[in-house]
Amino acid sequence: MARRPRGGQLPEGLRPLAGPAFVVAARYQDTPVGPYSELLVAEPARLGLRPGLCVTTAVVDSPQARVGGRLNWGFARELGTLVWDRDGDERELRWVERGMAVRGRPAGPPMPVLVPFRNLQRRADGPVVIPARVRGRGHLARVEVDTDDNDPLVWLSGNHRGIVVDGLHFILDPARLPSGLTSTLRAPLTAPEPAMTGAEP
Known about the structure:
By secondary structure, the protein is mainly beta. It has one helix spanning 63-73; strands at residues 15-16, 22-28, 36-47, 50-60, 77-79, 82-87, 90-95, 100-106, 111-123, 126-146, 158-172, 176-178, 184-186. It has one helix and 13 strands, in the order ββββαβββββββββ. A hairpin with a 7-residue loop joins β2 (22-28) and β3 (36-47).
């Protein structure tokens, strides 16, 4: 978790909420598109009266994960070079193009983790609500974020409180379109973006 500057850029239709940003560095071994790594920043936001988290920066090292994340859920994923390393208990994920690294070292006993939450994103067909949950075995951790001095994410640099999760299961439900105050309607499974109608790089 990290403090964030005021006036962060959120997609149209979402409004900021007070609270820390979340930095996630993950290596997924078993997904519908195969193994891949991801580094993302999520910020508190609301859609109408619904609070949640909006992923404002995301990079993956799999073209299939990039396309699926954008079309299915509206995650603004970009493709980059991510290097995952583990040295003893310490894990590190480096984003080569941005000179950014996230490092975590467990500092406490293991405990079960089960966290339901809500993603709020914007696809080509408008804002969507995405129920999600994370489970696994977690350890409280010391997390260090390094960035270049001129990077827009320099406000993340430094030491933070965090958690290292082993046996991570990250489940995203299909996106839903907002309807009324509390209920949502199932959205189309994908919302094609004009920029993706041609060949992927």
